[in-house]
Amino acid sequence: MNLQLLLLTLCQGLFLTNNVTFIAINGLVGLALAPQAWMATLPVCAYVAGGALFAPLVARNQRAWGRKRAFQAGQVVGILSCALAAWAVAHQAFAWVLVATVVAGYYNATASLYRFAATELVPPSHKEKAISWVLAGGILGAVTGPNLANASKQLLDQPFAGAYLVLVAVGLLALVVLSLIRFPALPVPAPGAPQGRSLRELARQPVFVVAVAACALGYGVMNLLMAATPIAMAQCGLPFDKTALVLEWHVLGMFVPSFFTGALIKRFGALPVMAVGVLLNLACILFALSGLDLMHFLGALLTLGVGWNFLFIGGTTLFTEAYRPEEKTQTQGAMDFCIYSVMTLTSFSSGALVMTGGWAWMNWASLVPLALTALALLWLARQPRLQPA
Predict the structure, then answer these.
(1) What pLDDT was estimated at residue 8?
(2) What is the pTM of this model?
(3) The pLDDT value given to residue 380
(4) How confident is the model at residue 275 (pLDDT cuts 50, 70, 90)?
(5) d(CA 278, CA 304)
């Protein structure tokens, strides 16, 4: 840990404060304003769809502007989108809520690259721990996000409009912290030197395919269940403060293990840690199917968070073997495009599944992507491994 990495970890915490608050309130805002009940999770879907839409543009901006300016631009977009969302909710304009959350996707796609920027602030031998430490900043979001949503629920006349305004202040604080970080310049090929491999060539590597598949599918399952949890708990008659408690423990499960996930990957390798992540996701589904009271929701979402942590940090670490320094921006952007595309599908599906098939059916459906992830890990384990790019 050094000062620059510590500041980036704080930025990650403020980013997750935004994300967790969005998850806690967007589905309920949708449920209150959407013309049809199955459209309730569209604001959640719009947020991640915006991430997928803007991921290629974010990658280009990173190359053109450098890490710091690109991160600052993303933060400004996040601040403006939260202000627009507050206005939209106050005026009960569902369409404008969707516009605001799509635009916020640019910030989502930008800040998701903090985990890769962390590896540039430490020696290469510490990349696993750098990724873990930055993602551990999400603990701040785990604690502040749900409590912020609960405390600001009635801040304005329209429920949850005030929460978006509070996120504007969170974004301004993050913008100040970003201005204090000194990021090293991104590698640029010398004139006449090879410009790096094409994305098509990079995507032919087994390590690329499996790392992207594991992160995307693991994130997809996590998003599918997390986005529907506030609605499912409301259907079970549980009050919002209990929903905030469940989401708080879920996000703690996502990020507290980061303090030792990097060390586990360093000792055992990425693939075994990712395999444990798949098993924890399966345990989450078994827990969720065993009951509908508060402790079943809490236990399932806590286990889901830890499983996501192992899959995502393991997959991100594995992915750093797939590209050379001059190829990092386009390759990282491609990974996040895939992740957000899967998340868009699961965000949309979660609302339809929980409102039509119910909580149990959605958990059964989660077994399909988990099986695909397990098969991908097994396939890579049987492939001859090359030296990291």
Answers:
(1) 95
(2) 0.78
(3) 92
(4) very high
(5) 10
